Amino acid sequence: DPWSAEMFESSLANPGCMALIVQNRQMTKIVAYGVLYSAADEADIANIAVMPDCRKQGIGRALLSKMIEIARSGGASRIFLEVRESNAPAQSLYTSAGFVEIGRRRKYYSSPTEDAIVMALCES
Question: By the 8 A CB rule, do 73 and 80 touch?
Fold first, then answer.
């Protein structure tokens, strides 16, 4: 679910929030973004989105890697995220980066209503 401009504005007003964007080579269009919240020794990856025609090119993996790097450099020992229960490609990406399922949030998503799988990456 792509974020609206209002969602970005509200989130970026939080001093613990950071957004990363990826543009196409011509720098004319945003093709992906990630939003990260950090506080104390924890971080939350709020969203990673890649345009459908730009998927399977490693952009999501690169964003995830950079967000983990930023969170770790800011002192986060634990990083959390939620992912749609039906989003197997994203779950595979997160698992390959070391995230593990720690719980579920019932009916967390809408359009359609769906559970979220809560995942965490802890310092090793």
Answer: no
Contact 12, 19 (CB under 8 A): yes
82 counts as catalytic: yes
Confidence of residue 105 (pLDDT cuts 50, 70, 90): very high
Answer yes or no: is pLDDT of 60 > 70: yes
Q: Considering the candidates 9, 33, 94, 123, report the single residue annotated as catalytic.
A: 94
Residue 15 tokens, joined:
């001093």
Cross-sheet strand order for the sheet of 78-84: 17-23, 30-39, 42-50, 78-84, 114-122, 100-109
- Grouping H, G, I as helix, E, B as strand and the rest as coil, residue 104 is strand
94 is catalytic: yes
